[in-house]
Amino acid sequence: MGWQGRCNSQVAQDEPGLEYPFLQWVNRGGDLDPRRQDGGFFMTEDNVNMLDALPVGAQATRMNFSTGNSEGGVFMESIVIAPLTSRFSWVVWEGGKHSYSNTYTAGARGKLNVLCYIKTNNGMKGPISITLTGTVTQDMGTAMSAHRQRVRRATKGQAPSPLFVMTLEPGDQVQRGKSGKQSRVTPIVMVEDFDADDSYVGDPLADEIEKRWQEFKTWKEKWCQPQEETGAADDDIHEEHEETVSQPTDNGVSTVQVVSFKSIDEALAWSVNVVKAYADPTKARTAYEQVRVDSSPQSSREMWGAWQAHCIQVVNNGK
Prior knowledge:
2 domains
């Protein structure tokens, strides 16, 4: 077998720092060379080499960062993925290091990673991680929730959503942020067309996903340790660009933290006292019930995620 057959080793899964290749969402096409009108997905050359395949529609480009540095890679206006799972963390830059936490603190920025397989010129490849920050995390959460629901409807609950692909593309640019601090952003949208038979990943990949599911759960449950700014970790490239594409709101809330509440009252208190989406619990409860109707959650976790996504949207829109 040799070392080439050890990629799925349990030891490798638990090894600190082991990560998958990643790509990131680019909010402004002007940060690319050649310039583009809208945002899309960017993947560095190193990550393309790690994936050992080119995503469908990839075009050579360079990313220009706010630091003055640039990085070569490929740009995709849209991607076709089979979404597996996701993880969220608040990230704080302090003392030359990034620290990751499940708890919001002043000045923290939210970051979302989505693990998936991606359609390439050589079939579905992965796993690969999509890195997002700012309000587009809400777009991604909405898309993944809608994907789960349409798979559930189409299969009558007989097959899980990670076994079906979804297409993500840029929507029309919109203004987001509080009054006086708004900026133009390119949202992520999911293509609505869906047929369960056409979107199924196929038995070989479905079997691989089933076989490696514990590995993906392990990835979800752990997050990188604090790292030096000068390190070569995945986040260094992304963090440089975050400053040019995402403006946090006054209270630092720029994305969704999917956590569990002990009760509805605790969820309402969070919306009033922590993120300040509503002025009082009565208004929050009315909104909460509407979110429940609109999202049709199948579990408490789905409801908490939908509620938090809604509250972040309220804050970022300055309502």
